[in-house]
Structures are given as structure tokens and as C-alpha cells.
Amino acid sequence: MQEKLENYIEELSLFDDIMDKYEYIIDLGKRAPSLRENEKIDEYKIQGCQSSVWIIKELREGKLYFKTDSDTVIVRGLARILGDIFAAHLPQEILNFDTKELEKLGLQEIISPVRLNGFTSMINKIYQYAKDENRG
Question: Is residue 97 within 8 Å of 45, Cβ to Cβ?
Fold first, then answer.
């Protein structure tokens, strides 16, 4: 997770201008695959987000993977970043990861406080999935 996080930090650091960083996240959102309509259900919908956003977990060989989507490209990009960072890890590895590390992305400078709250809600959903799988 740390390595993927560092890659995103490095990518974002290539841009001096906040709007360029914003555009980078939007571009990630535009390139992210969409969920099928029958996957956009309340069970996967993130509460506390200004936009509609869904995160679906998949468990393969004991590791979690995430499919994400949103009705706005910026949020789709943010969800893609999180899904990528946490993908292919054991639930306990996710639970052991210090979410304060994500602050190094510098999103508080790029997105609104409301979107930042939504980002936190997405993180919480991923952690809830990890807790559920860790118990199972």
C-alpha cells in the first residue's frame, strides 16, 4: 500500500498548480471503468458523500480488491486512487495501514472540505470491508 501511495504522491508532485492536480484526478476518473447499473445499489453506496459513489469489494485468494464508481469524474478519480492503493492486500494489512499516511497526497489543498469528508467516508467503507472479512 505504501508503495502505491508513494507513486500517487510522486505523480501529484509533478504538478505545481492545484488546478493541474485537480485535472490529474479528473483524468483518472475519466479512465476508470464504470460499474454496471445493477451494481450501483445501496449496499455498495457510500454514505456521507456529496456525490453518489459506490465501492464493491471482491475477495480473491484471501486478498481484497475494489471496484469503484461515482456519478462525478473527480470523485470517480478519488475512489480509483483508494481502490488502487488498498487492492491486493489481506484484510489485516489494510487494517494495519495508518490512514494518516493518505494525508501525504495533499488532497486537502486540492478538493473541497465536503469532498474530503466523502473521501474519508470511502476510506471508512474500505476499512469496514476489511474488518468484515477479517472476522469471517
Answer: no
Percent helix, strand, coil in the chain, to 5, is 60, 15, 25
**Among candidate residues 123, 106, 88, 135, the one with its CA nearest the CA of residue 18:** 106
> Residue 126's closest CA among 80, 73, 75?
80
CATH of the domain at 24: 3.90.1010.10
The neighbouring-strand residues paired with 40 are: none
Tell me the pLDDT band of 49, cut-offs 50, 70 and 90: confident
Q: Please identify which of the residues 1, 25, 49, 94 carries the catalytic annotation.
A: 49
Q: Is the pLDDT of residue 43 over 90?
A: yes
Structural domain containing residue 27? 2-135
DSSP assigned state of 35 = P
Active site residue 49: yes
Query: What's the chain's length in residues?
Result: 136
- Contact assessment for residue 29 and residue 80, using Cβ atoms and an 8 Å cutoff: yes
Question: How many domains, the chain?
Answer: 1
